[in-house]
Design a protein that fits this description.
Blueprint: H1 4-18, H2 22-58
Length: 59
Amino acid sequence: MPGIGSMVVIGAAALLIFGPKKLPELGRAAGDTLREFKNSTKGLAEDDEERTEDNKESK
């Protein structure tokens, strides 16, 4: 697990590479992507549960 020093170095490198104006946009885009992925996987899990319930009822 990365320590505080590693996190600071990674943050500083990202700031130098992308700049202070672009960094919040990148963070927001990453958050949106993770949220969409979470919603998609949640939908898949619910579909699996429905199929399992349907199979139990039909037997």
